[in-house]
UniProtKB/TrEMBL annotation, chains A, B, C, D:
Cited InterPro entries: Thg1_C_dom (IPR025845), tRNAHis_GuaTrfase_cat (IPR024956), tRNAHis_GuaTrfase_Thg1 (IPR007537), tRNAHis_GuaTrfase_Thg1_sf (IPR038469)
Protein family membership: Belongs to the tRNA(His) guanylyltransferase family.
Pfam families: Thg1, Thg1C
EC assignment: 2.7.7.79
Entry annotated with the keyword Transferase: yes
Protein name from the UniProt record: tRNA(His) guanylyltransferase
Source organism of this protein record: Sphagnum jensenii
Keywords for this protein: GTP-binding, Magnesium, Metal-binding, Nucleotide-binding, Nucleotidyltransferase, Transferase, tRNA processing
Length: 281, 281, 281, 281
């Protein structure tokens, strides 16, 4: 074959398989979103439509990649959790990363008009990403808690900051006013100066967004009138606390792994895919 | 800071800097493009509009990332060469890879209507990618030659295959007819059976596409009538042979690195950027 | 500083930190030990003195590196388990690997005369190695079980093989005789042909060797005659079954990690080191 | 096979092949040699016997591994250059690193008595190491220059320091005296205060040591009296300047690679090994 003379260059590709049996998180992050949000007149400190668009892109990723079991988004970033036993693309970091980033970025461009029907997309929004392994469920949950605490801290700060700017301060004055203040001070400032109860702000701003396959009960009727209940998985977008145990104990199936250890090291056979619908009388 | 309790999770990110002073090639590859091209009724064996769209996406990447010095595309794949001295994102593989993939994928979705005004985009085209280092210019050129030889081999095969199918063969019969045939036999088949001179097919099909910043001379006039010539860099899309030396000796500036070794190991200062325009009397 | 001109070369070192919070196993393997064992007339299939020497080298590693919590050896290979929370050398794979290999290899040369007083060391025994991460205790135990099962399989085979050779067969004939035989067949062969009950062979041959810090009770007397009992850690070499749970439930402290998660991500302070001696009345 | 249940653990080994066609440098570094040199009463600032021992260990590595083409040593560190086309152990970093470290460490223990017949080895000298790739000969030479400049700077400082201490200063006073002084000031201090011309100190102290296969001419006689000259490779230890071009132009074969690019990506066949002896009339 004429090509064999050059084919040796394939030997320069390096193996980048991620450690088996660890949770993979793929984090995508808006690139230059300060400029992007200004160019498209996003509302400050949070633009609801922009968040809805991000959530819809995350849904597209979850729908496409069955190994993605949970997504958490805040502002212009989104984290995708791949199940511990994922063997997609032999766990090659480049493949997994580029697939998620590609899906997310293309979806953002495609879905733009749906969420911003009156604003023309000036240029492509782009996202960079990384893939990180977490060896245990407990550390994975700490990662997710880290992002949600960050969401809260940033949102509280930004809410104060933009209220101060709206009230006439320069951005520098607003920064100086907030420098080193505690959460309590910021809450008081919002309440006393702007009559805002922080805890009444929309959950989506304070908690960020989660996207996952939720186990829901569907009720139907057979032709003979008999009532049927089925458990079905439905993709949902919610804004729950994911730091405390409550959410996870209510939805244990999200991070559970039914398959045995030996199977996990090999690609799951189609039959091994969780069969989640069942009939109840 | 309330977040510090969880911040330890940042320690799980692993450093993935690519070896300094090597040529970085980022290759993006259409995912499931057989299905995608059917869903959008691409012409076989080559759809000119689909190739133009790919080329325009590559241009968008070249325009955005100044360290990309050369791009080569064929079918649903594109390779981006980053200069040997690139220090963008400290050469982190994930960052560079995700940036290119994101730009390319978002551009594809955004520019679709421009190239396919009468075909609705059914779903997002997605691309996976990888980043590979080549330690010398000679090996980098072998990589590019490998891709261009592949373009030729595949195009010749596909041209024969689809002509046979158009002429009434089943796809299996067409495959059997071509199995193990040499280039000469395929050329004869095209000529004798279909009256096609392979070498007269469009260059873009036979050579693929290259995108780069080309040094061109601009001629203007001063107000006093004096003629001015300037060298300018202009982004071009061409379909040249890049295997032989001719192209590279005609455009030595593409792969040249003016800066000294010590500087190369550090981020280039703005002043170090090549000043390419010069006035001639 | 005159050296700065060349110091940029430090930038080519790549970060090879192992994923935090995973068990690190460093495996060392004799290089060319077939030849080495012939050159030094090792007994076949097992040379007790050679195994004792290996075990003593493992002890030297355990003594030197406090993060090594368990060692398992068989034939010319040894595995060293570093605690999950190890932060020695920031978990750099090269550093950890080279340190263990260096200690082991140097000890082998130094201790040779002690175990082979009448055999001159012809040339240096060398070992290659690798570092592997296991994300959970359960997978780590599977690794150790894998090695111990291997020990058993190889020892059973080798015992048969060398008995057959001693009895007059050529090595090829012995291989052919054993090809594809089950464990039962091999046991019968030993018993019926050579009157050997496999299960009566020394444990060290059948189980390999383990080295660890064992919790033992020391009894002493105060000056006033009062009896004192203390728990102390003492390095021991044993030949136990480590596949079943028994050993691990009897010695839970070997793999236990007392420190909390957040601390684990940072180098342990001296005070955090486990205090293992305690007085009992 | 009974073992298959556990064999999945092999999947946790990660591929660590070094980038093809780059120069590999394996650097080994004494661990805790300040203490080791005190425990064995090494002379200060340089112990000639200790350096000879290091050089002899480097020779052992060069003799054993044919892909090692050059070694440079100073104080308790040694660098081993593996040829760009090396494919030993598929260029796995762990294998190459552990092999060199093992050979070096074992040799140090074995050869100790030969160089220190009257000093008992108290405990094993250990070395850690790392493997680094350099993409071009020019950068490789910068690495070697870096080490030799370091040798000079350290030796000049240490010579001054120990002379001051011998003359009665405390170590702190000696440090303060030398702090921030230029090379000229140090040279003057040695000359005026201690009557030492720095440039007359042994080359081994000022330049470090190089070990390589040197092309030498052997003259012999045939039985019929005819004179024969042969080029032979002989391992030598020298103390030359390797920063300037002189050494390298005098010995171009050290870093030269005769084989063609395509061959280089594959393991060299025995026939491809350089045939270096030739007969001259």
């Amino acid at each position: 074959m004429a090509n064999s003379k050059y084919e040796y260059v394939k030997g320069f590709e390096q193996n980048d398989s991620l450690l088996p049996q660890t949770w993979i998180v793929i984090q995508v992050d808006g690139r230059g979103f300060t400029r992007f949000s200004q160019a498209h007149a996003f509302k400050k400190p949070n633009d609801m439509q922009a968040l809805f668009l991000m959530n819809d892109c995350a849904k597209a990723v979850l729908e496409d990649i069955s190994d993605v079991v949970f997504c958490y988004g805040v502002s212009d970033e989104y984290s995708f959790v791949l199940r511990r036993t994922c063997t997609l693309y032999q766990r090659h970091a480049s493949k997994l990363l580029s697939l998620v980033v590609s899906l997310f970025s293309a979806s953002y461009a495609m879905k733009w008009t749906q969420f911003f029907p009156e604003t023309e997309l000036q240029y492509a929004a782009t996202f960079d990403g990384r893939a990180v392994c977490y060896p245990s469920e407990s550390i994975l949950r700490d990662y997710l808690s880290w992002r949600q605490v960050d969401c809260h801290i940033n949102n509280q700060y930004n809410t104060c900051f933009w209220k101060l700017v709206e009230s006439g301060m320069s951005t520098t004055e607003a920064q100086d006013t907030l420098k080193g203040t505690t959460a309590d001070v910021k809450n008081n400032l919002l309440f006393e100066k702007f009559n805002i109860n922080y805890n009444n702000l929309p959950q989506i701003f304070r908690k960020g967004s989660i996207v996952y396959r939720k186990q829901v009960e569907e009720v139907g009727k057979k032709e003979n009138g008999e009532v049927i209940k089925r458990l079905r998985m439905r993709i949902v977008v919610e804004h729950e606390d994911i730091i405390r145990d409550g959410f996870w104990t209510a939805h244990p199936y999200i991070l559970s792994v039914a398959r045995s250890k030996q199977q996990q090291a090999h690609p799951p056979s189609p039959a091994a895919k969780p069969q989640l619908s069942l009939s109840l009388r």
